[in-house]
């Protein structure tokens, strides 16, 4: 069963991430190799046309796909991104929601896919990624 999440800013599914604070990423749901992460609109992260910059959407997808890979035990594992491919389908002009599923999980390697939608449900971007699971140490700031 997926778990709804209520965490302070800068914490994404139990892990402190300063970058998540910068982008105001908010974990929405995690569990059963699935994850959802919301990102509010911020004009500081737009391109010259006023659309959310592709690099910001890529970062959102990276975090969401990685979270899906560690959804079986979010506080125990971190991940290292080995590969991320993003396809942009439409401009993002407001708050967005990313969702991801881990398609295959081995002892150390995971493969996931995800997507970003706007508030109207329009599909904005698709991504696939390969990630390495890293067991976290008690006092790790990794």
TrEMBL record:
Q: Which GO terms describe its molecular function?
A: acyl-CoA hydrolase activity
CDD domains, A to Z: PaaI_thioesterase
Pfam families in the record: 4HBT
Kindly state which keywords UniProt assigns to this record, in alphabetical order: Hydrolase
Give the top-rank taxon of the lineage listed in the UniProt record for this protein.
Bacteria
Residues in Thioesterase domain copies: 50-124
Q: What InterPro entries is this protein classified in?
A: Acyl-CoA_thioesterase_PaaI (IPR052723), HotDog_dom_sf (IPR029069), PAAI_dom (IPR003736), Thioestr_dom (IPR006683)
Instruction: Respond yes or no to whether keyword Hydrolase is given for this record.
Output: yes
Cite the NCBIfam families for this sequence. Answer: unchar_dom_1 (TIGR00369)
Name the record gives this protein: PaaI family thioesterase
